Amino acid sequence: MLADAPRPFVLLDRVDTPDPESLRAVRGLQNAPFWHIWEAGAQCVALHQRWRCGFARHAFLLGMAQAPTAAGWQLPPDGLCGELRLTARLRQQGDGAALYELEAIFLPEADAGRAARGGWEVRIGLCGYDAQFREDILRPRYEELFRCLCRG
Fold first, then answer.
1. What Cα–Cα distance (Å) separates residue 8 from each residue in 65, 72, 141?
2. Which of 3, 17, 120, 139 has its CA 20 to 30 A from that of 146?
3. How do strand 80-93 and strand 22-32 relate by DSSP bridges?
4. How many Å apart are CA 93 and CA 28, to the nearest integer?
């Protein structure tokens, strides 16, 4: 886990150099529940949207479709140990929302040769900052987070 990443609740350890259409991220999992895969994926997609707009808007999860399950990947529902590699690819961009294809590869520590992989859709909403989503708090936090993850 990235030691100097702003907290709380950051489930990404590193971000590769983004481009306007995609972002790759990595997360090391240690005794983590399976839902951390979903949350890390959502954070990856939301971070890409924030970066694309120069951190000028708030991004939030709208929904997921066809998300993998622990049973479908033949993994335990908790206690995951290994490396999660995420690739978020932008499929559609609107003013208030974006649609991504998210690919995840999980490499278990115990058997790195037996990777679990899958893809699903993630929808992210976008809105301007306001009294509830305060720019003076959120924008600097996400800019700092992005800088730290890119150094990861």
1. 26, 30, 11
2. 120
3. antiparallel
4. 29
Stretches in the chain below the pLDDT threshold 50: 1-6
In a 13 Å sphere around the CA of 22, the CA atoms on its Cβ side amount to: 10
- Angle of helix 35-52 relative to helix 135-151, nearest 10 degrees, comes to 110
pLDDT value, residue 8: 66
* Token pair belonging to 32: 């983590």
CB 68 within 8 A of CB 37: yes
pLDDT digits (tens, 9 = 90+) for 90-117: 999 999 999 999 999 999 998 767 899 9
pTM exceeds 0.85, yes or no? yes
- What ranges make up the beta strands (E) of 14-57? 14-15, 22-32
